[in-house]
Structures are given as C-alpha cells and as structure tokens.
C-alpha cells in the first residue's frame, strides 16, 4: 500500500510539538537562525495557511516541506517519517531524498518526523512497504527542493536555470563556475512556488541510491544515546506490571489486593483489560513508584481464574482438530484446470501434509507503553510500528481531538508485527486515567512469550500428479489454519490472506488452492512475513517431493516450471551459479526454495553437513530481486536477519500448549539461534533498476524449505513438521 501524499504548489507549514523528548531532537543544535523548509506535501488538497515552523521556540522559520530543512549556514536535516525497528528506513528514506536534492549523506543530519497523518500520510511500518510505497514521492520531495534552489540562483545570476546545476548542497553556474551554497539560497527559495512535476534523475546518474552508506542510527544504538520505548522516563511516572490469565481467555474470579499493597512502593491494584482482535482479555495491574515493587506485588496477588473448558486444549488437540478439518471441502481461492481429472489420469501420484507451530514475536525489547491521559490532552511515549494508529485509537477511546493526542515514538528494539497493535497502549491509557498519572506498562519476557498474539499454526495438505515423463500436471494445496482477519466472527469462510506465499507461477496445468478456517481461543496476529512463513515451507517442500518422484534435479525441476517468469528464472540461475549447485560433494546436502514476498523474489540454497553427529547448516546462498536496491548493505542486513529468524523458527522454537496454557515462558524454553550456530551467509542483490520492492521479510519464508530440502538431499529423510531437532 503506497502513500497518498502528493506535491502541491500551495504553501503549508506545521507547528512542531516542543514537548517531544530531548533525544528525538538530539541534533537540533546544529540549526542556527531561521530554519527553513522547502516544498509542500499534502494528502487532502485543502487550502493551507502560512504559519511559523519552529524546531525550537527561539528559532522560528517558514515551513514548506516536512522533510527537508536547511539553515542559513547550509546545514541540512532530512526527516524520516517511518518508525525505525531495525529495518533501516531511518537511513534509506533520507537517502532517496538526498539523491535528488544533491546533498552528501555524510553531511546531513537525520531525524524522526512527528506522527501526523495529515502531513506525512500513512506512517505505519508493516508488510515491507516503506521504500516501495514512498520511493517516487521521496524523489520528488528532493527534486522539487533542488529545482527551487536552482531557480533562485539562476535569478541571481540572471541566467536560465538550464545553465545551473546542483552538487554537494551548492548550485553551480555552468558558464563561469560561480557557486551559491544552499544556505545562501534557502530564504528566497522558500518563497517560490513548488514544482508540481520536477525532473528526476536517470538511474544511470545515481550517486547515492544504490550505495551502502553507514546508518546514522547505529552509533546512537552502540553508545546508548538512542531512545527506545523502554527507556522512557516521564516526571511523576508510575510503573505497572499486569497479571493475566495463563489460558488467555480465563475469567477473573478473585484476587488479593491487600498482599500486593503491602509491598513497599505499591500505590494501586486495579483491574484492567486489553482488546485483541475483538476479544477482551482481563488483567490485574499492580502499580508502583518503581518497576521492581510492581513486579513483586504482582507475584502475591493470589489470583483465581475461571478457565472453563479451555484447560482441555493442548498442542496435540489442536493438531487433531486440524487433521479432522482437513477432510472437509475448503473455500476455493484458485481453481485452474481440472485437478480431480488430472489426478485420476496421472501416472505418478503423491500426497503429503506439513505442520507448522504457533510462534511468538519475542522482540528483544519487551513490550511496553507509557501513556498520560489528562482531561484535554493525551501523551504516548514508546516503541510502535503504528504511530498514527495509536493516535487514532486514543483519540476515539477518550473522545479527544487527534491534535490533542501527542505521539512520541522512539526507536524499536525489534517488532516483527507485534508493535502494530494497540493492546499494550490500551492497558497503559486505562491505568493512567484511573490513577491520574503517567503510567508505564512493561511486559515481562514471560508475558511476551506466553500471552501472544502469535503467528498462526497451520496444516498444509497436498495432492500432486505427474505424467510418465515426470512433468507436473496437477497440484492441490489445502491450508488449514486460523485467519487473522476473521478470528472471532460468525463467518465460517476464511479470507484470501491465509494463502499468502503460495507460488502460483508454477506452470502446473491443473491447480487448486483452498483454505479451511479454524476458530480457536488462541490469538494470532501478523508475524514477520505472516502466512508466507508457513505456506512457503509446505509448498516448496512439496515441489521438492514432486521433483524427487519425477527423478529430476529439484532446482532444474523449478526452472522448468518457472521458465516463462523472468524474475524467478533469473533468481534461480543466480543461486545455481553462486552456490555451485552442480558440484556434488560427499557428505554435503543442498536444498533450494524460491518465493515472493512484498514484491521481492528470493531464491535460496542451503548447504548442510553432518558435524560431530549433528546436521548443521553451514552455508546459505541467497539471491534477492527487489528492483532498485536503495542501500544494498541494508538489504543484506535484512536478509541476514530473516535467515537467522527463519532458522530459529525451523529448528529451535515453537509455542507449546498444555492444559490450555502456553508452556514456553522465557528463552530457556523458547530458544533463539546462538551466534555460533549461524551459518555462512552469502547474499546477492540483483539490481534491475525497477521500482524498489520490500525486503524486510523477503528471505524468511525460504529458509525452512531450503533447509529441510537440503537435509533430505543429505539423509533421505523428509521433514514435514516444524520445529525439528538438527541432532
């Protein structure tokens, strides 16, 4: 989903919130005198007013573009309007602007923008859409500002703008090589109309896009000056730790507030709740003047819950439920050819089923939120993927105008979809209103892993048919799982979202894809790559099984089935060459997988060996076609992160349920991949000069199938259930 912003020739400015925490404006001291912005961006086209813009109250200026700020000394500040959770948009968004603005990335400062839908459009970071949805717009932002600066310089020299060009924050006269710095031009430039359709550079002339510039947020994170939500410290702030039902939907019967209140520092013991996709989940909050006291008070609440029949559920019961449901007809999402006829006529028939478990998000920064609800104002501080969603939620819930809701979003210590929800903010806001003070809610690691919401668990059931020559002629893929968009409704049909990640480009004449909805009490939500992480494991494993019975090389088998798709073919060719696929080695297994996520095509080859009696992935080669790579190093870093997370989900962790409760509590029972277990990773970024696609989730779905296919190549053992033990 792209941004709805567009350039306008009208002037506009915004009043900045002077209450944004100090660290957010850490570099604002670089500005002296008037701080002026160029260009205007609007999403509604209403008639704007000229108002003063001030980064600090003593430095007023004219604001015409919420992204580009230049002071009279020529210092440039570029805003990133997409929250940073490790994905690199803090650097990449300004990098796109800088390309067209003709400024050196080493000479600019980058700052996070305020949360304001009217000015910045959709600021939510999900689905790997930040670069894809903002690329064209950010180029226009930079190009328009540059043209305005050039126009002023041309007037001063009394020449046509075509005789001027910009470089390194200066405008240069082609005739005599005279120069003006941007700082010398910015005041007059701010008074000019904004070009509606500025001329953009040709990709061959890029000097910034496509280059791996160091990220400005990394030093801040290394030296400790970067602020994360959990670092928030507000005057008068109270701390809350909340006990919730271990079976997730248990109803509160009783609790002992007196014991908790006896703990030194505890101020309140209050009931609260949070909404998770329409289901209210109760909790008892212990609120204290320090976090330790709140946590200790929580431990002595002596809560009793009515869990009804939820205690009858277990991982095995859910698996059995899914297997029984698989016998039913599914909601059909794709029906090409005649699968039943093709299967009946097939010379070779094959069936298989694959299981994947629930997964926790487990970001390294535990979930937290700080909220202060007052009569005529609300403030939120914290880590969020969805700053405007938080603003909208708080505005609606407390009937306060959106402009009176201040969102102070910080860096995120990981998110993976979990920080797109409002449930933790809801708890903090409720407790703040009840206590009349700012309240900081901190989830423990145990809360985070055991309370969800989780990635879906799924069962994928297949039937396939091939002719006597080993050509695939039929494939049926049935998905059985919960639906994030339809968890507790009355509609028995799943939405099309549950088939995400199923590769329909394979040239199989008869293909049937369907889904069966299961409604359970366990909440599910968006997890890095969402349904791709479950469906791709199953689909790419079954394609491998079809290649096996066809007695064909699995990579060649895919190349034949995808021969009419240039992007898939190119990615497969790349990993074939870079992985030395055709070099056969004793004691080495190789597996391949290919898929698409958020527009990026990813092909992956995993190499495994048996070392000290255990099978270990030793090398993973990835080719990623994501159009124009804005910052290749960021793309590689995201791909490496996907690989590590994919390996963790494949062979380390999985949520387990006994007597209705999640038995995983902390990292001892929900293990992460250790650094000494990470294989060698080679990532090849294919630059096609096409529009950029998303990369934050792209490689993760290919990890599990390429790994299990490699294990089959080495051992002859087919793995159809995750997670598994590499031993």
Give an overview of the whole structure.
The protein is built from 17 helices and 31 strands. By secondary structure, the chain is of the alpha+beta class. Strand 6 and strand 7 form a beta hairpin. The N terminus is likely disordered.
Compact description:
By secondary structure, the chain is α+β, with helices and mostly antiparallel strands. It is built from 17 helices and 31 strands.
Q: End-to-end span in angstroms?
A: 43 Å
- Helices, by number, come to 17
Poorly predicted spans: 1-64
| Secondary structure tally: strands | 31
Quote the beta fraction.
15-25%
Q: Tell me, what's the shape?
A: globular
Strand order, biggest sheet? 14-15-12-22-19-20-21
Radius of gyration: 28 Å
Biggest sheet statistics: 7 strands, mixed
Helical content stands at 25-40%
Coarse structural class: alpha+beta
Overall average pLDDT: 91
Give the helix/strand layout:
Elements: E1 6-7, E2 35-37, E3 41-42, E4 52-54, E5 60-62, E6 68-71, E7 76-80, H1 89-101, E8 108-112, H2 117-120, H3 130-157, E9 164-167, E10 170-173, E11 179-181, H4 182-189, H5 217-223, E12 238-244, E13 251-254, H6 257-261, E14 266-276, E15 279-288, H7 291-299, E16 304-306, H8 315-325, E17 331-336, H9 339-345, E18 348-356, E19 368-373, E20 378-382, H10 387-397, E21 405-409, H11 423-435, E22 439-442, H12 445-451, E23 458-466, E24 472-481, E25 510-517, H13 532-549, H14 554-561, H15 566-578, E26 588-597, E27 600-611, E28 614-625, H16 632-651, E29 657-658, E30 661-662, E31 680-686, H17 700-715
Parallel strand pairs: 7-8, 12-22, 20-21, 24-25, 28-31
Antiparallel strand pairs: 1-3, 2-6, 4-5, 6-7, 9-10, 10-11, 12-15, 13-16, 14-15, 17-25, 18-23, 19-20, 19-22, 23-24, 26-27, 27-28, 29-30
Helix pairs in contact: 1-3, 3-4, 13-17, 16-17
């Amino acid at each position: 989903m792209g941004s709805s912003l567009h350039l306008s020739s009208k002037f506009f400015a915004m009043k900045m919130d002077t209450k944004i925490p100090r660290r957010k404006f850490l570099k604002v001291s670089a500005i002296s005198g008037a701080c002026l912005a160029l260009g205007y961006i609007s999403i509604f086209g209403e008639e704007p007013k000229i108002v003063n813009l001030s980064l600090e109250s003593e430095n007023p200026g004219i604001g015409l573009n919420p992204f580009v700020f230049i002071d009279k000394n020529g210092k440039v500040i570029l805003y990133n309007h997409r929250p940073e959770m490790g994905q690199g948009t803090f650097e990449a968004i300004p990098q796109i602007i800088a390309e067209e603005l003709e400024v050196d990335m080493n000479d600019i400062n980058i700052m996070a923008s305020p949360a304001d839908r009217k000015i910045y459009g959709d600021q939510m970071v999900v689905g790997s859409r930040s670069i894809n949805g903002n690329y064209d717009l950010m180029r226009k932002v930079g190009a328009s500002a540059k043209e305005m600066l050039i126009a002023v310089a041309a007037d001063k020299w009394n020449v046509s703008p075509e005789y001027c060009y910009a470089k390194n924050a200066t405008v240069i006269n082609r005739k005599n090589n005279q120069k003006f710095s941007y700082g010398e031009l910015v005041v007059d430039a701010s008074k000019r109309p904004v070009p509606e359709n500025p001329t953009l550079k040709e990709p061959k002339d890029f000097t910034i896009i496509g280059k791996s510039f160091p990220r400005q947020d990394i030093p801040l994170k290394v030296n400790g000056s970067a602020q994360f939500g959990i670092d928030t410290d507000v005057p008068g702030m109270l701390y809350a730790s909340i006990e919730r039902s271990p079976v997730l939907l248990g109803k509160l019967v009783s609790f002992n507030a007196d014991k908790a209140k006896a703990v030194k520092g505890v101020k309140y013991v209050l009931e609260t709740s949070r909404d998770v996709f329409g289901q209210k989940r109760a909790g008892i909050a212990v609120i204290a003047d320090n976090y330790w006291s709140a946590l200790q008070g929580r431990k002595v609440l002596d809560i009793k819950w009515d869990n009804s029949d939820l205690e009858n559920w277990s991982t095995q019961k859910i698996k059995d439920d899914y297997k029984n449901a698989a016998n039913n007809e599914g909601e059909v999402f794709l029906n090409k050819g005649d699968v039943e006829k093709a299967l009946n006529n097939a010379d070779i028939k094959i069936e298989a089923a694959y299981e994947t478990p629930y997964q926790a998000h487990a970001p390294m920064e535990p979930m937290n939120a700080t909220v202060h609800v007052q009569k005529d104002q609300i403030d939120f501080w914290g880590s969020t993927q969805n700053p405007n969603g938080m603003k909208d939620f708080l505005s609606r819930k407390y009937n306060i105008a959106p402009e009176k809701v201040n969102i102070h979003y910080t860096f995120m210590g990981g998110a993976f979809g979990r920080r797109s929800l409002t449930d933790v903010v809801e708890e903090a806001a409720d407790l703040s209103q009840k206590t009349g003070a700012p309240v900081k809610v901190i989830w423990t690691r145990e809360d985070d892993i055991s309370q969800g919401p989780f990635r879906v668990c799924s069962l994928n059931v297949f039937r396939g048919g091939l002719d006597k020559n080993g050509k695939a002629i039929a494939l049926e893929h049935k998905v059985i799982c919960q639906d994030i968009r339809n968890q507790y409704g009355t509609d028995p049909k799943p939405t099309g979202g549950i088939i995400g990640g199923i590769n329909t480009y394979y040239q199989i004449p008869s293909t049937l894809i369907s889904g069966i909805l299961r409604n359970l009490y366990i909440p599910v939500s968006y997890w890095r790559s969402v349904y791709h992480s479950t469906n791709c494991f199953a689909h790419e494993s079954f394609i491998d099984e079809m290649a096996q019975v066809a007695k064909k090389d699995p990579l060649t088998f895919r190349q034949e089935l995808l021969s009419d798709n240039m992007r898939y073919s190119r990615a497969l060719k790349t990993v074939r060459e870079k992985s030395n696929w055709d070099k056969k080695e004793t004691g080495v297994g190789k597996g391949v997988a290919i898929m698409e996520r958020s527009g990026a095509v990813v092909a992956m080859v995993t190499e495994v060996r048996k070392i000290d009696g255990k099978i270990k992935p030793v090398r993973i080669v990835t080719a990623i076609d994501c159009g124009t790579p804005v910052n290749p190093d960021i793309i590689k870093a995201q791909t490496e992160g996907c690989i590590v997370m994919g390996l963790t989900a494949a062979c380390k962790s999985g949520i387990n349920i006994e007597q209705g409760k999640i038995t995983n509590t902390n990292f001892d029972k929900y293990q992460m991949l250790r650094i000494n277990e990470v294989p060698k990773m080679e990532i090849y970024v294919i630059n096609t000069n096409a529009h950029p696609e998303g990369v934050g989730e792209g490689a993760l779905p290919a990890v599990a199938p390429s790994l299990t296919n490699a294990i089959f190549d080495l051992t002859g053992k087919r793995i159809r259930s995750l997670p598994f033990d590499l031993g």
